[in-house]
Amino acid sequence: MNKKHLPYIILFAVLLLGAAGLFSTRFDLTKEKRYTLSDSSVKVLKAVKKPLTIEVYLEGDFPANFKQLRNEAKFMLEEFRKINPKIDYKFIDPLKTKMSQDTLVAMGMQPSKLSDMKDGKISEIIIFPYAVLKYDGYGSSHSLISQQTGSDLDQQINRSIESLEYNLVSNIKSITQEHKKSIGILVNQEELRPDEFRGFVNMALENYNVGPVIPTTTGELTLPDIPKLKKFDALVIAKPRKPFTDGEKVILDQYIMNGGKTLWMIDAVNAEMDTLNVSENKKIMAYPIDNNLTDFFFNFGLRINPALVKDVQKFALLRLVTGEVQGNPQFTSLPWPYFPLGIAESKNPVTNNINPVKFEFPTSIDTLGRPGIKTNVLYESSKKTLLKQVPNYVDLKEIASVDSLGQNEKPTTPKIFAVSLEGKFSSGYAARSERNTFPNFKPESENNKMIVIADGDVGRNKVLKGEPLPLGFDLLTNQQFGNEQFLKNALDYLLDDSNLMELRNRNIEARLLDRQRINEEKAQWQWLNLLLPLAIIGFLGALFFWLRKRRFSK
Q1: Most buried by CB count within 10 Å: which residue of 96, 273, 501, 542?
Q2: Is residue 184 pLDDT above 80, yes or no?
Q3: What's the whole-number mean pLDDT along residues 98-126?
Q4: First to last CA, the chain
């Protein structure tokens, strides 16, 4: 064999083996590395120890943008299977398999209705863009569509593709992990009632173990409660009304120093919409609430101000009776500046790509800064913000003059509603005598996290006829706010030891085709795709024949 032919033989063998599928190598040349799984994802996938099946209900005849989502999901699941052969997947067409809509709804899947135009006719398509995970006798369904108010379908599909890796991998981690992390809910400070906090608890139970933290003696947290607190990886304090004692603050301080994560939802002002609605003159007196936490948060570089924030640019609507026609009340949705909306304006994994979050009578947070602690603003008001000092009246008549200044109000800069803290926390009692009351006192934590929200109602669901409504759902305006997703992301951020949350900041540029040009040039591109391969094969065949004739004609 002539040695000069050896490279050509090797190249031919490589191409032949690749065509046979004996091996394959993919090169991700995209700018955002959209086809490369993160190290965190790979770690989670490799940890799957038993067979896992993922059923994706994205098979069938539906619009092109959903086909794009299907193709992205299929590619990603194929990568999952390559990393861990225990992971398998299949795509299901519920119409072809004749699955009833009631069966799909019972599995936790809600239908999406789309209008599709084909051959000049408009038809309605019902699809179920969900993935069902089955592992070790358990199953769970998860939507593949990222819902966000104000986004068109193409934007939602693009955001869904951006979130695809996080959604799939985080749900795989949730269903396959042997030991779920635990969340404690403090029940001692006159917090939200169980029916008002049911939406939050149900959401948390999807991925974590959840239990109450009830003091064993004297009605306050004491040293005998420390073993109970150590069982929980995170502690949730939702709208406390009773002041914390100095002893309780030491215990909470040491819980944090020993690695406990905390999620605080704090009201610094008493102002309730329920009270305002039932008052005779539609007016209530708002007054400050002393939770005895000023020095506690000051140690971590935060100060919660006892003054109501009115946002006259980003606000929720309040539905009120504004008239009557033949005995029938007439409702109108009007702007209510005391219910500002949290709209993410920075790429933070906790707040990215979710519906606006509804705050009710929030106050504001000042960030003071502390060495070794990184502070991130999660939500803040707009530039058109007013500040109402308390005690002061909140009058429903203010709805008629949103931009007007009331008594003790003045224009301010944007105010912070929620922050996250991350870093090494120092104890506020390291140089105080209270440290002597705590055994094995720890003056500083390892790297830790905390989230503080200046609104106790952000995690409260409404109750209708004794039944809790979904968290973030406004029955009067029939609008779903992003409160549940925000708090779910907050818990995931606090308890994420795999760094999966960073995937929520993934940005994939939508490179959309020009639909008008497609329609105009459709025929010529079809002929080009049909004839060009035949022309190339014909040219190569003629070249091979010419070379062979030239070589052997001598």
Answers
A1: 501
A2: yes
A3: 72
A4: 20
Quick check: 473 and 480 in contact, CB under 8 A?
A: yes
| Spatial CB neighbours of 34, under 8 Å, sequence gap ≥ 6 | 28, 508
Tokens of 336: 């209510």
Angle of the 164-176 helix axis to the 39-46 helix axis, nearest 10: 30
Please, are residues 360 and 346 in contact by the beta-carbon 8 Å criterion?
no
Report the mean per-residue pLDDT for the chain.
85
d(CA 252, CA 246): 10
Place of tokens 């092109």: 64
CB–CB of 79/207 below 8 Å?
no
Question: So what's the pLDDT on residue 154?
Answer: 75
Q: Confirm if 337 and 419 have CB atoms less than 8 A apart.
A: no
DSSP 79-136: HHHHH-TTEEEEE--TTTTT--HHHHHHTT---EEEEEEETTEEEEEEE--EEEEEET
Give the Cα separation of 149 and 474 in Å (integer). Answer: 14
Average pLDDT score over residue span 30-54: 83
Neighbour count for residue 112 (Cβ, 10 Å): 16
Let me know: does 315 contact 343? Beta carbons within 8 Å: no
Q: Could you tell me whether strands 52-56 and 130-135 are parallel, antiparallel, or unpaired per DSSP bridges?
A: antiparallel
Written as six digits, the tokens of 536 are 């190339």
In the block, which residue shows the tokens 């999660």? 378
Round to whole Å and give the CA distance between 61 and 95.
10
Q: Indicate the helix (H) or strand (E) that contains 226.
A: helix 226-230
CB atoms within 10 A of CB 411: 11
Q: Which domains are assigned to the chain?
A: 24-176 (3.40.30.10), 182-505 (no CATH)
Residue 430, judged by CB atoms within 10 A of its CB (0-12, 13-18, 19+), counts as middle
Residue with the two structure tokens 């991925």: 207
Q: What is the pLDDT of residues 298-351, one digit of tens each?
A: 999 999 999 999 998 999 988 876 666 666 777 788 889 999 999 988 788 899
Calpha distance 44→171 (Å, rounded):
10
CB atoms within 10 A of CB 476: 12
**Can you give the pLDDT at residue 219?**
82
Cα 529 from chain centroid (whole Å): 42
Residue 415 gets the label, from left (phi > 0), alpha (psi -120 to 50) or beta, of beta
